[in-house]
């Protein structure tokens, strides 16, 4: 592998089921050491793509290359997969799980180091079934890291976690990245993609519809920003001259999309609007996602 060979590459990857083209011609390359995110609405084909890359399901057609070669024994030794559950782990303590998984590989991270990385020391003697959601995800991540993999696959790792546990998990993923590991992630959470991913690919109906760094994608798609203000502060008289939409009927927020904040603010003030509750925010991945797919990111 040369410096420029991607650690993983998929070419014209397809998985067709009798009724659905779950993945329908996907191409991308993942550079070593980055976090690559697959985003998409429910049923977009993210899990199918990642499971083909993991070697768990067979593609209908297309190629998957690991360090420039078809996946083989080397890939299996050097990849780590965070499973959502295994039938074994609930009957074992955290320590026993770690010991069992590490015994499956000839080499790997020293368990003590793994325990510290994933902050599991406090729970070592607890049955895995008694862990909280965040603790369980950390254990599953530790299991994925026992062989000190070069590439780690995380399929919706923070779904169902509370905000604090999600933040903790992000920190953990960043510490893995800092060790020059490559991370492949699927997620429904745009803040997660924005915070963790160097590159994202947005999928819909089995195809990639946008691919790039989050900031580049936002800069390419949007030259505007969003002004939000409470409906009560939006003057009736401005209704016709300032294009807007009622964002949230419950809280009563009005959204104005503008390329010229100064001019729009001046217009609002001319109409006597109060600016006290006004917010200007840049476009987010959530906006991009909605624009590209017409769907909310979250199910
Ligand atoms: N084994 C299968 N047999 C038939 N259809 C399948 C199978 N697995 C997945 N599909 C279909 O393929 C499409 C893509 O599914 P996939 O699970 O990859 O989507 P996803 O993007 O991961 O969705 P989610 O966000 O809901 O997890 C869906 O329409 C799904 O119903």
TrEMBL record:
Domain spans labelled ABC transporter: 8-230
Q: Which UniProt keywords apply?
A: ATP-binding, Cell membrane, Membrane, Nodulation, Nucleotide-binding, Translocase, Transport
User: Which organism is the protein's source?
Assistant: Thiothrix nivea (strain ATCC 35100 / DSM 5205 / JP2)
Location in the cell: Cell membrane
**Presence of keyword Transport:** yes
* One Gene Ontology term of the molecular function aspect: ATP hydrolysis activity
Which family is this sequence assigned to?
Answer: Belongs to the ABC transporter superfamily.
Q: Specify the domain of life of the species encoding this protein.
A: Bacteria
Q: Name one GO cellular component term.
A: plasma membrane
Q: What is this protein called?
A: ABC transporter related protein
């Amino acid at each position: 592998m040369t410096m420029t060979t991607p650690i993983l590459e998929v070419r014209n990857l397809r998985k067709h089921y009798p009724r659905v083209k779950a993945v329908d011609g996907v191409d991308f390359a993942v550079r070593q050491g980055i976090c690559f995110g697959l985003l998409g609405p429910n049923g977009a084909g993210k899990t199918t793509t990642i499971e083909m890359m993991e070697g768990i399901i067979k593609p209908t057609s297309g190629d998957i290359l690991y360090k420039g070669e078809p996946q083989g024994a080397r890939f299996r030794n050097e990849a780590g997969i965070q499973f959502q559950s295994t039938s074994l782990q609930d009957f074992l303590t955290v320590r026993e799980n770690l010991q069992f998984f590490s015994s499956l590989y000839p080499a790997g991270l020293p368990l003590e180091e793994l325990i510290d990385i994933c902050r599991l020391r406090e729970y070592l003697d607890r049955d895995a079934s008694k862990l909280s959601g965040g603790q369980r995800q950390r254990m599953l991540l530790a299991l994925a890291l026992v062989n000190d993999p070069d590439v780690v696959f995380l399929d919706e790792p923070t779904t169902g976690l509370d905000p604090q546990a999600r933040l903790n998990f992000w920190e953990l993923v960043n510490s893995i990245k800092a060790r020059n590991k490559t991370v492949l992630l699927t997620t429904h959470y745009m803040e997660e993609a924005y915070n963790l991913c160097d590159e994202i690919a947005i999928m819909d109906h089995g195809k990639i519809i946008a691919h790039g760094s989050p900031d580049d994608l936002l800069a390419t798609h949007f030259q505007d920003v969003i002004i939000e203000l409470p409906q009560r502060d939006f003057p009736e008289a401005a209704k016709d001259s300032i294009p807007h939409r009622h964002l949230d009927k419950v809280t009563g927020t009005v959204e104005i999309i503008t390329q010229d904040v100064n001019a729009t603010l001046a217009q609002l003030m001319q109409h006597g609007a109060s600016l006290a509750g006004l917010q200007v925010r840049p476009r987010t991945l959530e906006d991009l996602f909605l624009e590209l797919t017409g769907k909310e990111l979250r199910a």
